[in-house]
């Protein structure tokens, strides 16, 4: 639909941002034929684009403005001024359109903490039905089960008729995947259980969001949107940016009554008779609130934005999974991504195989991962309690909860992942694609250790009143001393992993005779904790899981939305996306973003359940 046709039209709900969460809401809300819904998405519809749909092509999406907003952080003080590229999906499906396709789960305690922070209805038991509703898991074939040791999965816990396809590849298993479960045993880690049980430690090959019927990425646009797009009560406009929320300030509280949208050079105002639902993601949801007058008074006044709701917490509480990656040289004869890079005929073969049968290396994404507790990784002798220092950016209650999780033997402190490809983190400030799609001669294997519950807290705030100007993103990486120390221990542990068990057989021995494994050129050697800390500062990158900038918390404890995801101080306005996570959770967070949006759609439907709607409330169709 042309954006100009929408001028002065009215819908029951306007969804600002057709990303991961936004399309879930669009799909679920339009199940009610009495609701009219408009989705406004800044990017395009990339369904059918082979770079998006081919699972093995995802690294080519980053820093390409057709798919990626390509945000950059401020220079990070604790990392000698390093800047980080932060990709975010731009297009229908949002970041689910460009992500690494890894499908994982938070822990039971992660969600029980959400509930106990003042969010009734958001505990583990409350959210399980939504995990079930999201997923359409496909059982592995016998060869896959054997190669990837998938017996840890408990099919009875998994959804099999939901929207998002989850599956394992059917062939082209690599040596690292095949060694992975054995590596876990060799390290003496606990035997993995299905992360859907709520507690899971050890290494395992995880599910990816791939539809095995055609080998393509399964994401919010190909699933949730596809199911809804024939409905007359849903309109979707793309390449249109929501500039701000329109308000009615005549009542006791300001009420969101529509949005101002920019398409090309023209501006359109559209009315929402029930609610505006902000789904712009962790960077652009707080941006849109601030542009609309919801946020810190001094900041809004600085940019001449009238203050509608004063709330110091908008854009604060930014949390990430900081991750450090190391790479080692692989012995000849074992395939890595560099073989495809260096041999065009191999790459052509892989592409032809994918085109003909949706199989081979292009059909696969990263699967090797695992969760490790504090004691499995860290060396004895560290007084963790003394490192738990207060920080003005970290609410004391969060500090206590972080310490409890840190010391819980059942909880993951680290996520460890591996892939047969090198990584040149010197490009962390320019492009995440270039980082893994590097040009260093040779063949490599990389392993990363990421922190599941970082102690550092950052912020996202507007730099001007113009929606086109990117906000200032300051993750304050490593600003809390705990994060640096935990990651330094993680680095030493990664070195232990590669010299132990089956992985060691595939990697070159260090040329200096030290008994270590040979690093990829560019990785400085290190042996002590002090040296490991320097490596962390040089090599820490994003794990792509920022959350928390419109936190669901009591208002006096840093909340921007309540447990119904309503923006405090306003009516007719909710935020639904990764920005509402009050505290970050274990693992790859997409499954929880889908679950948050599924639950939000039930909450919203429930809010209007008693109301007689006649279908003409929205005159947008
Ligand atoms: C590179 C990368 C790799 C990742 N890998 C994984 C993984 O393997 N597994 C996993 O579980 N998670 C992964 N994640 C995380 C996960 O994909 C995201 O957390 C999740 O998709 C975020 O969903 P969201 O709804 O919060 O935001 P998004 O999906 O990013 O949606 C926000 C949408 O809003 C639109 N928008 C923003 N502002 C406006 C505006 N003003 N007007 C109109 N539209 C607007 C954007 O274009 C976008 O489409 C990854 C993320 C990235 C970026």
Automatic annotation (TrEMBL):
Signal peptide: none annotated. This is GMC oxidoreductase. Residues 11-322 form the Glucose-methanol-choline oxidoreductase N-terminal domain. It comes from the Eukaryota. Belongs to the GMC oxidoreductase family. Residues 455-597 form the Glucose-methanol-choline oxidoreductase C-terminal domain.
């Amino acid at each position: 639909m042309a954006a100009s046709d929408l001028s002065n039209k009215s819908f029951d709900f306007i969804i600002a941002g057709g990303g991961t969460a936004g399309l879930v809401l669009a799909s679920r809300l339009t199940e009610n034929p009495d609701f009219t819904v408009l989705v406004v998405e800044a990017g395009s519809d990339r369904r059918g684009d082979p770079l998006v749909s081919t699972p093995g092509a995802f690294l080519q999406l980053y820093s390409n403005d057709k798919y990626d907003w390509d945000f950059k952080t401020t220079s990070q003080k604790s990392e000698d001024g390093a800047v980080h590229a932060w990709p975010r999906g731009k297009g229908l499906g949002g970041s689910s359109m460009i992500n690494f396709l890894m499908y994982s789960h938070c822990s039971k305690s992660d969600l029980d903490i959400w509930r106990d922070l003042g969010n009734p209805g958001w505990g583990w038991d409350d959210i399980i039905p939504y995990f079930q509703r999201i997923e359409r898991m496909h059982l592995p074939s016998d060869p896959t089960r054997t190669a990837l040791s998938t017996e840890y999965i408990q099919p009875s816990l998994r959804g099999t008729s939901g929207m998002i396809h989850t599956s394992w590849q059917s062939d082209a298993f690599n040596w690292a995947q095949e060694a992975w479960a054995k590596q876990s045993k060799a390290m003496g880690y606990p035997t993995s259980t299905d992360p859907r049980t709520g507690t899971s430690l050890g290494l395992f090959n995880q599910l990816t969001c791939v539809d095995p019927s055609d080998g393509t990425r399964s994401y919010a646009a190909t699933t949730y949107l596809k199911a809804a797009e024939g409905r007359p009560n849903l309109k979707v406009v793309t390449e249109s940016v929501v500039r701000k929320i329109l308000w009615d300030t005549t009542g006791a509280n300001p009420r969101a009554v529509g949005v101002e949208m920019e398409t090309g050079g023209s501006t359109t105002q559209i009315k929402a008779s029930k609610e505006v639902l902000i789904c712009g993601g962790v960077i652009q949801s707080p941006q849109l609130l601030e542009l609309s007058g919801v946020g810190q008074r001094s900041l809004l006044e600085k940019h001449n934005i009238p203050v509608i709701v004063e709330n110091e917490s908008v854009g604060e509480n930014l949390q990430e999974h900081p991750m450090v990656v190391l790479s080692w040289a692989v012995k000849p004869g074992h395939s890595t991504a560099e073989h495809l890079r260096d041999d065009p005929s191999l790459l052509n073969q892989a592409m032809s195989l994918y085109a003909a049968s949706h199989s081979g290396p292009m059909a696969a994404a990263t699967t090797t991962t695992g969760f490790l507790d504090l004691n499995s990784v860290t060396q004895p002798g560290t007084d963790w309690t003394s490192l738990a220092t207060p920080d003005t950016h970290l609410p004391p209650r969060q500090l206590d909860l972080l310490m409890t999780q840190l010391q819980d033997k059942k909880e993951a402190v680290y996520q460890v992942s591996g892939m047969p490809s090198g990584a040149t983190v010197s490009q962390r400030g320019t492009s995440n694609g270039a980082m893994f799609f590097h040009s260093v001669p040779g063949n490599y294997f990389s392993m990363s250790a990421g922190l599941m519950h970082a102690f550092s807290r950052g912020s996202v705030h507007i730099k001007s009143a113009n929606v086109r100007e990117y906000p200032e993103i300051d993750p304050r990486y490593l600003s809390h001393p705990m994060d640096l120390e935990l990651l330094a221990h993680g680095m030493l542990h990664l070195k232990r992993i590669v010299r132990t068990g089956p992985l060691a057989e595939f990697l070159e021995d260090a040329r200096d005779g030290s008994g270590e494994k040979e690093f990829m050129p560019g990785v400085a050697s290190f042996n002590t904790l002090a040296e490991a800390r320097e490596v962390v500062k040089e090599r820490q990158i994003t794990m792509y899981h920022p959350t928390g900038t419109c936190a669901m918390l009591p208002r006096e404890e840093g909340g921007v939305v309540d447990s119904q995801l309503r923006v405090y101080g306003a009516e007719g306005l909710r935020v639904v996306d990764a920005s509402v996570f009050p505290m970050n959770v274990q693992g790859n967070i997409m499954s929880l973003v889908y679950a948050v949006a599924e639950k939000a759609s039930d909450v919203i439907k429930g809010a209007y359940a008693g109301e007689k709607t006649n279908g003409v409330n929205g005159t947008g169709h």
